[in-house]
Amino acid sequence: MVPNSMTPIVVPNSTSGDNGMQPSQAASSGALPSVRTFNTDPMAVVPSGPPPLGTKHFMPGDGIDLMTSTSEVLDYPTRIRRVSIADSKIADIQVINPYELNLVAHQPGFTTLAVWDTQGRYSEREIRVDESGKQQVLLNVIVAELNRSRIENFGINWSVALPRWNISLVNMAGGVATPYTATSALTANSLISSNPPVTVSTTAAGTLPPNGTLIPLLLSQNLTYGLAAGNNNIQTQSFFQFLEENSMGKILAEPHLLANSGEKAEFLSGGEIPIVISQALNTSIVFKQFGTSVTFVPTVIGFDDILLKVKPEVSEPNFAEGVNLFGFTVPAFVTRRAETMVRLRNNQTLIVAGLLLNTKNETVAKVPYLGDIPYIRGLFRNTSYNNTQTDLVMTVTPQIVAPLPPNGRVILPTDRGPMSSEEIQTRRVYPDDAGRPRF
């Protein structure tokens, strides 16, 4: 009897006819698998530990995937008589014993492995060698900018009436009170010298009150404190402003990147700005990227360990610090950049923070001449300090995922029905926070 060379090597008592590969449950029962929808790649089944000793690893039925500089041991149910590989530069063979082979991957490419048994039957499999691994890593990233800026405002508005000297004085440099206009209806209070003194109220719409009367100040929302005092000789009213404002943060980007193990994934949220370069008689234009960019290189080690290389960068052009070259303005770039490499487990989170940017501005509003007099100039000026400090914060959560199953499909926006009344109902937030972010 002449052996059939096209009959594959099979495991004894196997029903698959392809080296021990068992048919799926749906195929054996004849039932069609139910369709499942996914909005992201499903999580991969990560083994809790190495397989027990004595477990056989037979040749797969669809091909062999290897990563460069790695190897894989293949078991065979029958004795091997001869082996062949098409390109030994891509992958090589090491015969361990008559029932086991060791495949060693050298460089990326494709080749074919052929194995014969003692009866002359053979099996062929395609071998693919990649620079990266066959695992896929989903990177869930959140890039946020926390604005730690604080604005401090100090100001005083006051008005003084000296009736015996027929003098009225008002200071509006602080911006605490709202200056009245020509159409503002004001009531001025004046003191008439008598025993006892009598206060007379007169209405002066659109005009200044008479000499020696108290000039009223309209209240403003910036008012913090108010003080009114007087006696037989002096009447005064003062408004004070002491304000402190703190800014909040915002999310710059929230990408979800999918990359093979060992491959680079990049993300940019920003743009490109043209920069003119002049050399001798030639003029060229190059484009410089700016914005929020992140570069990742995840590498799966073992079962659920991930070696992650992260390089975040936030940059923006600054034309104030730029230079003029041949009639063109070449801007400077304010850049915050970091680079790190960490080792995480599956579903663990890496937080990168501390990339601070400080900008301090001082604004002075004063009355001309009076605001420059030593010792008393503080009564005629308002100083505002704006210290802007932004912190770049990034969180990365790598997850080992698997491709969609044969019965899976990507979920569509039309698959969701109309929203119910419970989903669109407004709910009270406790404690109340008017500055909470809304998305």
What percentage of amino acids are in beta strands? over 45%
Poorly predicted regions are 1-30
Structural class: mainly beta
Largest sheet: 9 strands, antiparallel
The helix content, as a percent range, equals under 10%
Characterize the overall form. Answer: elongated
Mean pLDDT rating: 77
Order of helices and strands: HEEEEEEEEEEEEEEEEEEEEEEEEE
From the alpha carbons, calculate the radius of gyration and give it in angstroms: 39 Å
Total of DSSP H or I helical runs spanning 4+ residues: 1
Q: Compute the number of strand runs.
A: 25
Distance between the termini: 76 Å
Describe what this molecule looks like in 3D.
- With about 450 residues, the protein is mainly β.
- About 0% of the residues lie in helices and about 55% in strands.
- The chain contains one helix and 25 strands.
- The strands form six sheets. Strands 9, 10, 11, 14, 15, 16, 17, 23 and 24 form a nine-stranded antiparallel beta sheet that branches. Strands 18, 19, 20, 21 and 22 form a five-stranded antiparallel beta sheet that branches. It has a four-stranded mixed beta sheet with strand order 2-8-7-4, with no helix packed on it.
- The two termini are about 75 Å apart.
- The model is unreliable at about 1-30 (pLDDT under 50).
